[in-house]
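Q: I have 421 residues here and want to know how they pack in 3D. Can you give me a structure?
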Amino acid sequence: MEEAQRRALRRGRARLVAALRVAPLWDPLEERGLFTRPMVEELQSAGSRGGQARQLIIDLETRGKQAFPLFLSILRDTGQGDLADMLIKECECLPGPPQPVDLRPVELDLRGEKQNKRASFAVFLHATSIAAGSLRRAAVGSGPSGDPGSIPCSVKSGRREGDPCGHCLILNNVSFSRASNLSAREGSDVDCKKLEKRFKALSFNVLTRRDLKAQDMVSELQELAQQDHGALGCCVVVILSHGCQTSHIQFPGGIYGTDGKAIPIEKIVNYFNGSHCPSLRGKPKLFFIQACGGEQRDRGFVVDSDSPGDEAPGGSLESDASPFQTPSADADEPDAVASLPTPSDILVSYSTFPGFVSWREASSGSWYVETLDSVLEQYAHSEDLLNMLLRVANAVSAKGTYKQIPGCFNFLRKKFFFTCK
């Protein structure tokens, strides 16, 4: 698709979202080869009519050179010629294509750019949408080992300037009941404040809840899942608590409420799947878990460390571990395999390898959150999320005598960027 046609779709998107009748379009879109049946079904699952129209216009840009004229023809065939005329007018009144830009990688001072208070928003990109004619920027980041990397991308979003890109719920459990036999998580408030500030800077609506029992945590998660996310691009859930191993099918581990009752992480994740939260179908759902996966302490192996003071646990250094316990007969069991939809467009980032502890300091917070916040600050405007999580894992694994390494379960189908405007 030519750049002028792309810009015409973007300029006309507001009117298309407001007026486009999508129901008559599905069969012609498939018959003329613009979308396959699975693609059409995914578009139909994008929530309201307006949400379906928005996603259709966004995805149309990736469907090749003939996508624009074919779409105009389908609009006329379905009695929506006024919208086709509007797009033609938008295309004709746009200036000619810009001169090719020099896309040679350049070294950017990413640390200095954080002082520019520019709005950020999340964009969700098809891995196949990167094409030379649609490059918008080329940014270079320098990894922990000094190796540069370049990620050019085509920015596509239905979000208007100033709109939030999604909701972010932070559940922060610090003080636990005496009956739970779980210690207070000193330093967790430090983590919470860092992440509140970070996700607000990335244009999320941030809601924080502190010291919740397990059932209250479930209520907050269900309330978030039941909201209409149709106009938003993604959803983020952050949980800061004690954790444990649990039996599981998809996602390992569990999170404790302040009453000492555990919630399986896979149960938390599945509140937001396509069956329970239709308005988030096809959109990224990101979970960041700062909790232990068990009680094992890993002495690890020797790596270069920039933190020689991080020695064996002692002083203010604590873990968020709780031993693995086989669920009793009356405990809630995970849902059967047949009842769990495929967890597409989900990423769960764990602070530690399942079965091992996660370290936290009273003054500076947890190793994982401290590093995650720092990496987001430096690279959120230039790198995709998975690349940033590799940086987090590398930095955290270099700390201390007792080792910790974060990891993730990734079911995203596209690259996810926090992109500066």
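Q: Anything worth noting?
A: The radius of gyration is 23 Å. Residues 96-159, 294-314, 321-341 have pLDDT under 50 and may be disordered.
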